[in-house]
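Look over both lines before class:
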Amino acid sequence: MCSWKFVIVGKPFAPDAEHHASMPEEQKQKLTYEQIEARRAKDRVRYANMIPKQRQAIRDCQNARNMKPKQKQAKRDQYVARRELRRNTLHKDSIAMVKPFYNPMVDSP
């Protein structure tokens, strides 16, 4: 299960999948058609009111469930490498400059 939670109007809530997973099996089977449709309608409204970042977070968690461990590790490694590259790359508008007389050799006695 995903560990993400959203905060909407100052109240944190977990997705309904977590709530449904915690329900006893007998209670899951006793839901009527109207209750199921009401929940689906509520979920559609909640999803429609999400910002794109929240929707993408849900999709990412759903996609991660279907990945194999090697795929997950490769995705993490790719993310780390991309962050490292961003950290070491200057922005085109940056005023930082390379010191032309800098000598990286450390003088040790």
About this structure: The longest strand covers residues 6-8.
